[in-house]
Amino acid sequence: xxxxxxxxxxxxxxxxxxxxxxxxxxxxxxxxxxxxxxxxxxxxxxxxxxxxxxxxxxxxxxxxxxxxxxxxxxxxxxxxxxxxxxxxxxxxxxxxxxxxxxxxxxxxxxxxxxxxxxxxxxxxxxxxxxxxxxxxxxxxxxxxxxxxxxxxxxxxxxxxxxxxxxxxxxxxxxxxxxxxxxxxxxxxxxxxxxxxxxxxxxxxxxxxxxxxxxxxxxxxxxxxxxxxxxxxxxxxxxxxxxxxxxxxxxxxxxxxxxxxxxxxxxxxxxxxxxxxxxxxxxxxxxxxxxxxxxxxxxxxxxxxxxxxxxxxxxxxxxxxxxxxxxxxxxxxxxxxxxxxxxxxxxxxxxxxxxxxxxxxxxxxxxxxxxxxxxxxxxxxxx
Length: 382
What we know:
Blueprint: E1 2-7, E2 10-14, H1 16-36, H2 39-62, H3 69-94, H4 120-133, H5 164-173, H6 175-180, H7 186-190, H8 200-224, H9 229-255, H10 273-282, E3 286-287, H11 291-296, H12 303-308, H13 317-331, E4 337-338, H14 340-353, H15 358-361, E5 369-373, E6 376-380
Parallel strand pairs: 3-4
Antiparallel strand pairs: 1-2, 1-5, 5-6
Helix pairs in contact: 1-10, 1-13, 2-3, 3-9, 8-9, 9-14
């Protein structure tokens, strides 16, 4: 593979040798961080767990004063923070195996369950394996549009795409349920490629996990608040909605703003380690922000670094980010980053634009990357 990309100084060509050289340097960067893992990383994750539990206890307790609006709002805020931390900085990262090196049962990636309706084992398959192995490869990575959205020009347009922004809004509000249904591949059931009978085991797991979550948030805790059942129920629903909107926004900012590129199966069929790294860089985007913002995003604000090193503790991403960016600059590769406002505005702009027929909006003029295989150029990400 040879890569040609546009820079401010004109076209720049990366040869196969340079791509593999880049891969070696990224392997060395990862090895350096792995060798340095230790007590600081242990203290970090336990401090996050302690904070998450503190916010949950505070939120649950304040619900008993929910008849007073200021206390109800404080309860919702605390519970929302608790759920965001549990999903983003704890659940997502622990289930990636980022803390398996600690060999502690509560942080075992294969056993961990989060405060979410999606069963952990199903998420590990659809996300850890399918998404991170086949990142942004059409017909492989089902995170490209989650089966219902048009987020890339290479996805065919039809009149149903006119509802693109509405579908995205619905997915945002019910994001944990969308994640739960991801492995079902509902669109393939509609097309007759899968049957409901094929999904018996998946549905059984979802029924058990979602049932426990619904019972906890919408029955048991509201019932424990006695006459405040309705206000507690409303508070729990609101906290889940806040978590859903936040998780959707962070994840979409890392995957679908302008400049993020997609690939075909043919382009990646004989992919080397170095080429895999390049695909992760071109298929991801970062969000700038404060330390607190990065923590609340589960450090998925460093989506480029996460895609390069998904099993490294996420608190290390801010440390490696300057080195990754320097490598991108050295080899002329784009390092897609921007403020939350810029990235989320870009995402929603794309969702509205791609809802329309191609002849009305034209092609994206963002420079792409050209891959050369056996002397034959094919456009990648254009």
